[in-house]
Write a structure and sequence with these properties.
The complex is a heterodimer.
Chain A (H helix, E strand, L loop, with lengths): L8 H15 L5 H16 L6 H20 L3 H5 L2 H8 L6
Helix pairs in contact in A: 1-2, 2-3
Chain B lengths: L11 E6 L2 E6 L4 H7 L23 E4 L6 E2 L10 E3 L3 H15 L10 H7 L25 E3 L9 H6 L9 E4 L6 E4 L15 H5 L5 E3 H9 L7 E7 L8 E7 L2 E6 L13 H5 L9
Parallel strand pairs in B: 1-5
Antiparallel strand pairs in B: 1-2, 3-4, 3-5, 6-9, 7-8, 10-11, 11-12
Classes of the chains: A mainly alpha, B alpha+beta.
The structure holds iron/sulfur cluster (SF4) (3 copies) and FE2/S2 (inorganic) cluster.
Chain lengths: ~90, ~290
Protein backbone atom coordinates (compact mmCIF):
# COMPACT_ATOMS: atom_id res chain seq x y z
CA UNK A 1 0.00 0.00 0.00
CA UNK A 2 1.27 3.47 -0.80
CA UNK A 3 0.12 6.72 0.80
CA UNK A 4 1.09 10.26 -0.08
CA UNK A 5 2.00 12.73 2.65
CA UNK A 6 -1.49 14.17 2.83
CA UNK A 7 -2.53 11.16 4.92
CA UNK A 8 -2.09 11.92 8.62
CA UNK A 9 0.28 9.32 10.04
CA UNK A 10 -1.25 9.17 13.53
CA UNK A 11 -4.57 8.06 12.08
CA UNK A 12 -2.91 5.45 9.93
CA UNK A 13 -1.02 4.11 12.95
CA UNK A 14 -4.20 3.99 14.97
CA UNK A 15 -5.84 1.93 12.25
CA UNK A 16 -2.92 -0.51 12.24
CA UNK A 17 -2.98 -0.77 16.02
CA UNK A 18 -6.68 -1.53 15.85
CA UNK A 19 -5.93 -4.29 13.35
CA UNK A 20 -3.38 -5.90 15.66
CA UNK A 21 -5.67 -5.63 18.69
CA UNK A 22 -8.43 -7.23 16.67
CA UNK A 23 -6.23 -10.00 15.32
CA UNK A 24 -4.62 -10.95 18.64
CA UNK A 25 -5.73 -14.46 19.48
CA UNK A 26 -5.48 -13.66 23.17
CA UNK A 27 -3.27 -16.52 24.19
CA UNK A 28 -0.32 -14.57 25.60
CA UNK A 29 -0.40 -11.54 27.88
CA UNK A 30 2.08 -9.22 26.07
CA UNK A 31 -0.02 -9.28 22.90
CA UNK A 32 -3.51 -9.71 24.38
CA UNK A 33 -3.20 -6.69 26.68
CA UNK A 34 -0.23 -4.97 25.02
CA UNK A 35 -2.11 -4.37 21.75
CA UNK A 36 -4.97 -2.81 23.75
CA UNK A 37 -2.63 -0.52 25.68
CA UNK A 38 -0.87 0.41 22.42
CA UNK A 39 -4.14 1.41 20.77
CA UNK A 40 -5.21 3.40 23.84
CA UNK A 41 -1.93 5.35 23.86
CA UNK A 42 -2.17 6.06 20.12
CA UNK A 43 -5.73 7.33 20.66
CA UNK A 44 -4.51 9.72 23.33
CA UNK A 45 -1.85 11.25 21.07
CA UNK A 46 -3.70 11.22 17.74
CA UNK A 47 -3.91 15.04 17.80
CA UNK A 48 -0.73 15.69 19.80
CA UNK A 49 2.90 16.36 18.99
CA UNK A 50 6.26 17.04 20.65
CA UNK A 51 6.31 17.27 24.43
CA UNK A 52 2.56 16.59 24.61
CA UNK A 53 3.08 13.16 23.06
CA UNK A 54 6.42 12.30 24.65
CA UNK A 55 5.05 10.49 27.70
CA UNK A 56 2.85 8.19 25.66
CA UNK A 57 5.61 7.55 23.13
CA UNK A 58 7.90 6.42 25.95
CA UNK A 59 5.10 4.13 27.16
CA UNK A 60 4.61 2.78 23.63
CA UNK A 61 8.31 1.99 23.40
CA UNK A 62 8.24 0.05 26.67
CA UNK A 63 5.13 -1.94 25.80
CA UNK A 64 6.37 -2.47 22.23
CA UNK A 65 9.67 -3.85 23.42
CA UNK A 66 7.94 -6.36 25.70
CA UNK A 67 5.54 -7.39 22.94
CA UNK A 68 8.47 -7.97 20.59
CA UNK A 69 10.52 -9.88 23.16
CA UNK A 70 7.92 -11.88 25.02
CA UNK A 71 4.94 -12.60 22.72
CA UNK A 72 4.48 -16.17 21.53
CA UNK A 73 4.07 -15.57 17.81
CA UNK A 74 4.93 -13.18 15.02
CA UNK A 75 1.71 -11.21 15.38
CA UNK A 76 2.49 -9.92 18.86
CA UNK A 77 6.20 -9.71 18.09
CA UNK A 78 5.58 -7.31 15.18
CA UNK A 79 2.53 -5.47 16.51
CA UNK A 80 4.58 -2.38 17.29
CA UNK A 81 6.92 -2.37 14.26
CA UNK A 82 4.93 0.11 12.17
CA UNK A 83 4.49 2.50 15.08
CA UNK A 84 8.17 2.33 15.95
CA UNK A 85 9.36 3.01 12.42
CA UNK A 86 6.84 5.84 11.92
CA UNK A 87 8.17 7.51 15.06
CA UNK A 88 11.87 6.89 14.39
CA UNK A 89 12.03 7.19 10.59
CA UNK A 90 9.11 9.34 9.55
CA UNK A 91 9.02 11.65 12.52
CA UNK A 92 5.38 11.04 13.37
CA UNK A 93 4.25 13.18 16.34
CA UNK A 94 7.08 15.70 15.86
CA UNK B 1 2.64 -40.56 50.00
CA UNK B 2 3.20 -44.29 50.04
CA UNK B 3 4.65 -44.88 46.60
CA UNK B 4 8.20 -43.87 45.78
CA UNK B 5 8.37 -42.88 42.13
CA UNK B 6 11.34 -44.68 40.64
CA UNK B 7 11.54 -43.28 37.11
CA UNK B 8 14.22 -44.13 34.63
CA UNK B 9 17.61 -42.65 35.47
CA UNK B 10 18.20 -39.68 33.23
CA UNK B 11 21.47 -38.49 31.79
CA UNK B 12 22.71 -35.13 32.99
CA UNK B 13 23.31 -32.38 30.50
CA UNK B 14 25.47 -29.34 31.08
CA UNK B 15 24.71 -25.74 30.32
CA UNK B 16 25.40 -22.28 31.70
CA UNK B 17 22.98 -20.51 34.01
CA UNK B 18 23.82 -16.89 34.83
CA UNK B 19 27.47 -17.58 34.06
CA UNK B 20 27.71 -20.68 36.28
CA UNK B 21 27.98 -24.20 34.85
CA UNK B 22 24.99 -26.34 35.90
CA UNK B 23 23.94 -29.94 35.31
CA UNK B 24 20.31 -30.89 34.85
CA UNK B 25 18.64 -34.20 34.03
CA UNK B 26 17.78 -34.55 30.36
CA UNK B 27 14.26 -33.33 29.70
CA UNK B 28 14.35 -30.66 32.42
CA UNK B 29 13.00 -27.24 31.64
CA UNK B 30 15.05 -24.12 32.24
CA UNK B 31 12.67 -23.45 35.12
CA UNK B 32 13.46 -26.83 36.72
CA UNK B 33 17.15 -25.96 36.56
CA UNK B 34 16.55 -22.46 37.95
CA UNK B 35 14.62 -23.87 40.88
CA UNK B 36 17.27 -26.51 41.54
CA UNK B 37 19.84 -23.71 41.64
CA UNK B 38 17.68 -21.72 44.06
CA UNK B 39 16.78 -18.98 41.57
CA UNK B 40 13.35 -17.42 41.94
CA UNK B 41 11.76 -16.95 38.50
CA UNK B 42 8.15 -15.72 38.70
CA UNK B 43 5.50 -17.99 37.15
CA UNK B 44 1.73 -17.77 36.79
CA UNK B 45 0.46 -20.12 34.09
CA UNK B 46 2.92 -22.90 34.91
CA UNK B 47 1.40 -25.69 36.98
CA UNK B 48 3.17 -28.54 38.73
CA UNK B 49 0.55 -31.04 37.57
CA UNK B 50 -0.01 -29.70 34.05
CA UNK B 51 1.87 -29.46 30.78
CA UNK B 52 3.21 -25.94 30.20
CA UNK B 53 0.98 -23.66 28.16
CA UNK B 54 3.49 -20.79 28.25
CA UNK B 55 0.77 -18.20 27.95
CA UNK B 56 1.50 -15.61 30.63
CA UNK B 57 5.15 -14.92 29.68
CA UNK B 58 6.09 -13.72 33.15
CA UNK B 59 8.85 -16.34 33.38
CA UNK B 60 10.85 -15.19 30.33
CA UNK B 61 14.64 -15.49 30.37
CA UNK B 62 17.37 -14.68 27.88
CA UNK B 63 19.01 -17.46 25.89
CA UNK B 64 22.20 -16.61 24.00
CA UNK B 65 21.49 -16.58 20.26
CA UNK B 66 17.69 -16.58 20.53
CA UNK B 67 15.89 -13.75 18.70
CA UNK B 68 13.26 -13.35 21.40
CA UNK B 69 13.15 -14.13 25.09
CA UNK B 70 12.09 -17.68 25.95
CA UNK B 71 9.64 -18.94 28.57
CA UNK B 72 11.64 -20.77 31.24
CA UNK B 73 8.62 -22.91 32.18
CA UNK B 74 8.45 -24.70 28.86
CA UNK B 75 11.82 -24.39 27.12
CA UNK B 76 13.85 -27.53 27.68
CA UNK B 77 17.44 -27.13 28.78
CA UNK B 78 19.93 -28.10 26.06
CA UNK B 79 23.61 -28.90 26.33
CA UNK B 80 25.79 -25.83 25.91
CA UNK B 81 22.89 -23.38 26.24
CA UNK B 82 23.73 -20.03 27.80
CA UNK B 83 20.83 -18.82 29.88
CA UNK B 84 20.54 -15.54 31.74
CA UNK B 85 17.65 -15.07 34.12
CA UNK B 86 18.21 -11.59 35.44
CA UNK B 87 19.19 -9.32 32.54
CA UNK B 88 17.70 -5.88 32.01
CA UNK B 89 15.94 -7.26 28.92
CA UNK B 90 14.27 -10.15 30.75
CA UNK B 91 13.35 -7.99 33.72
CA UNK B 92 11.81 -5.39 31.42
CA UNK B 93 9.43 -7.91 29.83
CA UNK B 94 8.48 -9.36 33.22
CA UNK B 95 7.77 -5.89 34.54
CA UNK B 96 5.59 -4.96 31.55
CA UNK B 97 3.73 -8.29 31.65
CA UNK B 98 2.96 -7.72 35.33
CA UNK B 99 1.80 -4.17 34.57
CA UNK B 100 -0.40 -5.32 31.70
CA UNK B 101 -2.02 -7.95 33.91
CA UNK B 102 -2.40 -5.77 36.99
CA UNK B 103 -3.93 -2.95 34.92
CA UNK B 104 -6.58 -5.21 33.40
CA UNK B 105 -7.33 -7.94 35.94
CA UNK B 106 -8.09 -8.00 39.68
CA UNK B 107 -4.99 -9.69 41.09
CA UNK B 108 -5.90 -9.13 44.74
CA UNK B 109 -6.08 -12.86 45.49
CA UNK B 110 -3.14 -13.98 43.33
CA UNK B 111 -0.36 -15.18 45.64
CA UNK B 112 3.01 -13.41 45.35
CA UNK B 113 1.93 -10.85 42.76
CA UNK B 114 2.20 -7.91 45.18
CA UNK B 115 5.76 -8.99 45.96
CA UNK B 116 6.69 -9.24 42.26
CA UNK B 117 5.12 -5.89 41.37
CA UNK B 118 7.41 -4.38 43.98
CA UNK B 119 10.48 -6.33 42.97
CA UNK B 120 10.12 -5.35 39.29
CA UNK B 121 9.08 -1.76 40.12
CA UNK B 122 5.93 -2.28 38.07
CA UNK B 123 3.53 0.67 37.91
CA UNK B 124 0.24 -0.59 36.46
CA UNK B 125 -1.32 2.87 37.00
CA UNK B 126 0.86 4.50 34.38
CA UNK B 127 -1.45 3.38 31.58
CA UNK B 128 -3.94 5.92 32.92
CA UNK B 129 -7.21 5.80 34.82
CA UNK B 130 -9.63 4.95 32.01
CA UNK B 131 -7.98 1.91 30.48
CA UNK B 132 -9.83 -1.24 29.46
CA UNK B 133 -10.27 -3.80 32.23
CA UNK B 134 -12.08 -7.13 32.31
CA UNK B 135 -14.82 -5.92 34.68
CA UNK B 136 -16.63 -9.25 34.92
CA UNK B 137 -19.20 -9.84 37.63
CA UNK B 138 -18.62 -13.01 39.68
CA UNK B 139 -20.74 -15.89 38.39
CA UNK B 140 -22.51 -17.37 41.41
CA UNK B 141 -24.74 -19.99 39.82
CA UNK B 142 -24.28 -23.06 42.03
CA UNK B 143 -23.67 -23.85 45.70
CA UNK B 144 -20.18 -25.29 45.33
CA UNK B 145 -17.83 -22.88 43.60
CA UNK B 146 -17.76 -19.38 42.15
CA UNK B 147 -16.26 -18.21 38.86
CA UNK B 148 -15.02 -14.66 39.21
CA UNK B 149 -13.57 -13.97 35.78
CA UNK B 150 -12.66 -10.40 36.67
CA UNK B 151 -9.69 -12.14 38.33
CA UNK B 152 -8.87 -14.45 35.42
CA UNK B 153 -5.48 -14.16 33.71
CA UNK B 154 -6.40 -16.73 31.02
CA UNK B 155 -3.69 -19.11 32.07
CA UNK B 156 -5.61 -22.08 30.54
CA UNK B 157 -4.95 -24.24 33.61
CA UNK B 158 -8.63 -24.84 34.40
CA UNK B 159 -9.34 -25.75 30.78
CA UNK B 160 -6.44 -28.20 30.70
CA UNK B 161 -7.42 -29.72 34.05
CA UNK B 162 -11.04 -30.13 32.94
CA UNK B 163 -10.02 -31.45 29.53
CA UNK B 164 -7.60 -34.05 28.27
CA UNK B 165 -4.90 -33.56 30.89
CA UNK B 166 -6.98 -34.74 33.86
CA UNK B 167 -10.73 -34.73 34.13
CA UNK B 168 -11.72 -35.40 30.49
CA UNK B 169 -15.04 -33.66 31.05
CA UNK B 170 -14.37 -30.75 28.68
CA UNK B 171 -16.98 -28.55 30.38
CA UNK B 172 -15.05 -25.31 29.92
CA UNK B 173 -13.05 -23.71 27.15
CA UNK B 174 -11.69 -20.38 26.00
CA UNK B 175 -14.40 -18.47 24.16
CA UNK B 176 -13.72 -15.38 22.07
CA UNK B 177 -10.37 -13.94 21.09
CA UNK B 178 -7.92 -11.23 21.99
CA UNK B 179 -8.87 -9.06 24.95
CA UNK B 180 -12.42 -10.41 24.75
CA UNK B 181 -11.35 -14.01 25.33
CA UNK B 182 -12.97 -15.53 28.43
CA UNK B 183 -13.28 -18.95 30.00
CA UNK B 184 -16.84 -20.17 29.48
CA UNK B 185 -18.99 -23.27 29.30
CA UNK B 186 -20.83 -24.13 26.12
CA UNK B 187 -23.12 -21.29 25.03
CA UNK B 188 -21.94 -19.40 28.14
CA UNK B 189 -24.71 -21.18 30.08
CA UNK B 190 -24.85 -21.34 33.87
CA UNK B 191 -22.61 -24.08 35.22
CA UNK B 192 -25.70 -26.04 36.27
CA UNK B 193 -26.66 -26.39 32.59
CA UNK B 194 -23.20 -27.51 31.52
CA UNK B 195 -21.28 -30.76 31.39
CA UNK B 196 -19.50 -29.85 34.67
CA UNK B 197 -19.37 -32.67 37.22
CA UNK B 198 -18.17 -30.43 40.07
CA UNK B 199 -14.91 -32.23 40.69
CA UNK B 200 -13.33 -28.87 41.49
CA UNK B 201 -10.13 -29.89 39.74
CA UNK B 202 -10.19 -26.53 37.96
CA UNK B 203 -10.42 -24.74 41.32
CA UNK B 204 -7.42 -26.79 42.50
CA UNK B 205 -5.15 -25.41 39.77
CA UNK B 206 -6.46 -21.85 39.37
CA UNK B 207 -3.56 -19.55 40.31
CA UNK B 208 -5.55 -16.35 40.87
CA UNK B 209 -8.57 -17.16 42.98
CA UNK B 210 -10.82 -16.54 39.95
CA UNK B 211 -12.21 -19.97 40.80
CA UNK B 212 -12.90 -20.47 44.49
CA UNK B 213 -15.03 -22.49 46.85
CA UNK B 214 -18.37 -20.79 47.51
CA UNK B 215 -17.45 -20.95 51.20
CA UNK B 216 -14.24 -19.00 50.55
CA UNK B 217 -16.02 -16.51 48.28
CA UNK B 218 -18.73 -15.82 50.89
CA UNK B 219 -16.21 -15.53 53.73
CA UNK B 220 -14.07 -13.11 51.72
CA UNK B 221 -17.17 -11.03 50.97
CA UNK B 222 -18.05 -11.01 54.68
CA UNK B 223 -14.46 -10.15 55.62
CA UNK B 224 -14.07 -13.29 57.73
CA UNK B 225 -11.63 -15.24 55.51
CA UNK B 226 -8.36 -15.43 57.47
CA UNK B 227 -5.70 -17.86 56.32
CA UNK B 228 -3.57 -17.15 59.37
CA UNK B 229 -6.31 -18.76 61.48
CA UNK B 230 -6.61 -21.85 59.25
CA UNK B 231 -5.06 -25.26 59.73
CA UNK B 232 -4.47 -27.78 56.97
CA UNK B 233 -4.89 -31.47 57.72
CA UNK B 234 -4.26 -34.11 55.10
CA UNK B 235 -6.37 -37.22 55.48
CA UNK B 236 -7.94 -39.94 53.37
CA UNK B 237 -11.31 -39.54 51.66
CA UNK B 238 -13.79 -41.96 53.18
CA UNK B 239 -16.19 -42.20 50.25
CA UNK B 240 -14.67 -44.93 48.08
CA UNK B 241 -11.87 -47.45 47.76
CA UNK B 242 -9.61 -45.19 45.73
CA UNK B 243 -8.75 -43.42 48.95
CA UNK B 244 -7.68 -40.03 47.57
CA UNK B 245 -5.80 -37.69 49.87
CA UNK B 246 -7.82 -34.72 51.05
CA UNK B 247 -6.33 -31.64 52.66
CA UNK B 248 -8.98 -30.07 54.87
CA UNK B 249 -8.59 -26.34 55.42
CA UNK B 250 -10.24 -25.55 58.73
CA UNK B 251 -11.04 -22.17 60.24
CA UNK B 252 -12.83 -21.88 63.58
CA UNK B 253 -13.56 -25.60 63.60
CA UNK B 254 -15.32 -25.49 60.22
CA UNK B 255 -14.02 -26.94 56.95
CA UNK B 256 -13.74 -23.95 54.64
CA UNK B 257 -12.19 -25.62 51.60
CA UNK B 258 -10.68 -28.88 50.43
CA UNK B 259 -7.55 -29.32 48.33
CA UNK B 260 -5.49 -32.37 47.49
CA UNK B 261 -1.70 -32.83 47.51
CA UNK B 262 -0.24 -32.32 44.05
CA UNK B 263 2.62 -34.73 44.73
CA UNK B 264 0.29 -37.69 45.25
CA UNK B 265 1.60 -40.11 42.61
CA UNK B 266 -1.85 -41.50 41.81
CA UNK B 267 -4.24 -38.57 41.90
CA UNK B 268 -1.96 -35.54 41.39
CA UNK B 269 -4.30 -33.19 43.26
CA UNK B 270 -7.45 -34.35 41.49
CA UNK B 271 -10.63 -35.40 43.31
CA UNK B 272 -14.28 -36.05 42.53
CA UNK B 273 -17.28 -34.08 43.76
CA UNK B 274 -17.63 -36.24 46.87
CA UNK B 275 -14.13 -35.75 48.19
CA UNK B 276 -13.94 -32.13 47.08
CA UNK B 277 -17.29 -30.79 48.23
CA UNK B 278 -19.06 -33.51 50.24
CA UNK B 279 -17.85 -32.63 53.72
CA UNK B 280 -20.98 -31.13 55.28
CA UNK B 281 -21.86 -34.31 57.22
CA UNK B 282 -18.59 -34.01 59.13
CA UNK B 283 -19.70 -30.80 60.74
CA UNK B 284 -23.44 -31.38 60.95
CA UNK B 285 -23.92 -30.78 64.66
CA UNK B 286 -27.69 -30.32 64.60
S1 LIG C 1 1.39 -13.03 19.99
FE1 LIG C 1 0.39 -14.59 18.79
S2 LIG C 1 -0.04 -16.13 20.36
FE2 LIG C 1 0.27 -14.25 21.47
S3 LIG C 1 -1.82 -13.40 21.71
FE3 LIG C 1 -0.81 -12.50 19.89
S4 LIG C 1 -1.60 -13.68 18.21
FE4 LIG C 1 -1.89 -14.91 20.06
S1 LIG D 1 -15.49 -28.70 38.38
FE1 LIG D 1 -14.50 -30.35 37.17
S2 LIG D 1 -15.93 -30.75 35.49
FE2 LIG D 1 -16.53 -28.78 36.37
S3 LIG D 1 -15.45 -27.24 35.12
FE3 LIG D 1 -14.13 -27.71 36.87
S4 LIG D 1 -12.74 -29.34 36.19
FE4 LIG D 1 -14.47 -29.24 34.72
S1 LIG E 1 -10.14 -19.23 35.77
FE1 LIG E 1 -8.19 -19.48 36.87
S2 LIG E 1 -7.29 -21.34 36.03
FE2 LIG E 1 -8.88 -20.69 34.59
S3 LIG E 1 -7.78 -19.45 33.07
FE3 LIG E 1 -8.60 -18.06 34.63
S4 LIG E 1 -6.93 -17.78 36.09
FE4 LIG E 1 -6.45 -19.60 34.87
S1 LIG F 1 4.85 -19.34 33.71
FE1 LIG F 1 6.00 -19.51 31.90
S2 LIG F 1 4.76 -18.55 30.41
FE2 LIG F 1 3.52 -18.50 32.20
Amino acid sequence: MAFDDSVPLPRLLLRMAEFFRDESCGQCVPCRVGTVRQEEALHRIVERTGADAAGDIALLREVGRAMRDASICGLGQTAWNAVESAIDRLGAYE
Amino acid sequence: MTVTPLGIPRRLLEFTLDGEPVRAPEGSTILDACRAAGKDVPTLCEGDTLRPKNACRVCVVEVEGARTLVPACSRKAEPGMEVRTDTERARHSRKVVLELLASSVDLSTTPRVAEWLKEYEAKPDRFGPDVARLNEEPKVDNDLYVRDYGKCILCYKCVDACGDQWQNTFAISVAGRGFDARIAVEHDAPLTDSACVYCGNCVEVCPTGALSFKSEFDMRAAGTWDESRQTETTTVCAYCGVGCNLTLHVQDNEIVKVTSPHDNPVTHGNLCIKGRFGYQHVQNRG
